[in-house]
Specification:
The structure is a single chain. By secondary structure, the protein is an alpha+beta fold. It is 18% helix and 36% strand. β14 and β15 form a beta hairpin.
Length: 463
């Protein structure tokens, strides 16, 4: 019998690839973690260290003086007798008006070639040029035109002084209609006119600090003017003030200051002035520096650039990007109490429930405390606006409502955000130096958020 061959296929035994299983397990674990990492807020922090800073702050200030703008009684060609910054007595000749315009020609014809500007006048003009050269900046090209005007005006005055004794004779001999204008007050003269002259402190607005909106115009010698034209200002007092806008945190920086020392960039003068903060009608806070001398050095200027000279300050150094501003409830400090443990700070809160009134102690994290107020978070649900607090050992009641803004940072030492108030001592564009002795404040080696925007008080950061 023929051999029959039957082929039976062999079923290969399946085996598991351990590597594939491990890879898939890791993938299943990592995908959710990657998604959480991509969607989670990026946590960057800074460690607080000690530091120091000596940084001068530059401002462009607005100058106000006790000044009066004088207008021309008639029209005509103006002849200036006094230069900017010269002091006039009551009745002093300031300028004249020539109705015909012939005075200049007649004076040129009558003046001898030997008439020259005095040595002292030449020296004074050289000083003006030297000051211009040492303080010129490409970023302030308008300074060139201001200087040109002052030199032209000075040269005209020197020229007129040579012939001033002949003006009356010339005008009388030739029948000229010459109207000589005298000063109604004693004070320094300036022919630089703008729309802020005679403005009061309380009327200042933010727009007044935009130099492009308030150009200065100059009345020039031999210029034809109409009646009622604003010709010059007369400054009646040597006292003057310069106002400046605050940078972030700067008002708090100078809160305890009575005087500030500044250095003016245009002429290098270093002056110490009385410092104060003023409020305008629209609630605009401005720094104010008052001086009692050197007014004439700035008589032709409405704005002046200066550096506030700072002393070296020591404290805790933190990046400026860490700082945020938040609202906090203010509560009179006499309402603060201690809990039953004698340690916890808090308040006695009046609770009305089911027609029954009771008092409970509510522990509270104090953000800041002053001689009059303590500050608590507005995000705490235990004490909210409208709650009534009871003064210890008294029946006096305070209703929570008032809020104030504080500057601070988010401390993350405990794994969640805790707002810490800061008192700024010094600053530049990148860093603040803050007081290291602030109660409830920061300490060396604290960790603070670098990117506080988008976080809330008490938010866990490592979930």
């Amino acid at each position: 019998m023929a051999d029959s061959k039957k082929i039976i296929p062999y079923r290969k035994k399946r085996t598991f690839n351990v590597g594939v299983i491990i890879f898939l397990s890791l993938l299943i674990y990592l995908i959710p973690s990657a998604v959480r990492g991509a969607t989670r807020k990026q946590i960057r922090y800074n460690e607080v260290v000690e530091g120091s800073m000596s940084e001068n702050k530059t401002h462009t200030g607005l100058i106000l003086r006790d000044e009066s703008v004088q207008v021309s009684p008639d029209g005509g060609y103006i002849n200036i007798y006094m230069r900017d910054g010269k002091r006039a007595a009551v009745g002093s000749r300031v300028y004249s008006l020539d109705a015909t315009g012939d005075l200049k020609k007649l004076m040129e014809a009558s003046s001898g070639k030997e008439d020259t500007i005095s040595d002292s006048s030449v020296i004074e003009m050289k000083k003006k040029l030297s000051n211009f050269t040492s303080n010129y900046s490409d970023s302030d090209f308008e300074y060139v035109y201001d200087t040109k005007y002052l030199l032209d005006n000075a040269a005209s005055e020197y020229s007129n002084l040579i012939n001033i004794e002949n003006i009356d004779n010339i005008s009388n001999e030739n029948g000229l209609s010459l109207n000589v204008i005298t000063s109604p007050y004693s004070g320094e003269i300036s022919y630089a006119i703008d729309d802020i002259a005679e403005k009061k402190e309380e009327d200042l607005t933010k727009s007044d600090f935009d130099t492009s909106k308030h150009p200065i115009s100059y009345i020039k010698n031999e210029q034809l003017i109409e009646a009622e034209t604003k010709v010059y200002r007369i400054v009646k007092s040597e006292s003057w003030s310069i106002y400046f806008e605050f940078e972030k945190g700067e008002e708090e920086l100078y809160a305890e200051k009575k005087t500030l020392t500044v250095k003016f960039k245009s002429n290098g003068l270093t002056l110490t002035g009385d410092y104060s903060v003023v409020e305008t009608k629209d609630g605009y806070s401005l720094g104010k520096l008052t001086f009692d001398k050197y007014m004439v050095q700035f008589i032709s200027n409405r704005y002046a650039e200066f550096d506030i000279q700072s002393l070296v300050v020591n404290g805790l150094k933190i990046p400026s990007k860490c700082v945020l501003e938040k609202d906090f409830y203010t509560i009179p400090v006499e309402y603060m109490a201690k809990g039953g443990d004698g340690v916890s700070d808090g308040f006695y809160k009046q609770v009305d429930k089911d027609g029954t009134t009771s008092t409970v102690f509510v522990p509270e994290d104090i953000i800041k405390i002053t001689d009059t107020n303590c500050y608590i978070s507005t995000e705490n649900k235990d004490i909210a606006s409208g709650d009534k607090l009871i003064k210890p050992d008294s029946n006096e009641i305070f209703e929570v409502s008032n809020k104030e803004k504080l500057l601070g940072v988010y401390n993350i030492n405990k794994g969640y955000t805790v707002f810490k108030n800061i008192d700024i001592l010094g600053s530049n564009k990148e860093f603040y130096i803050v007081d290291k002795g602030t109660k409830y404040g920061l300490k060396v080696y604290d960790h603070i958020l670098l990117n506080p925007d988008g976080f809330k008080e008490g938010e866990f950061i490592y979930q």
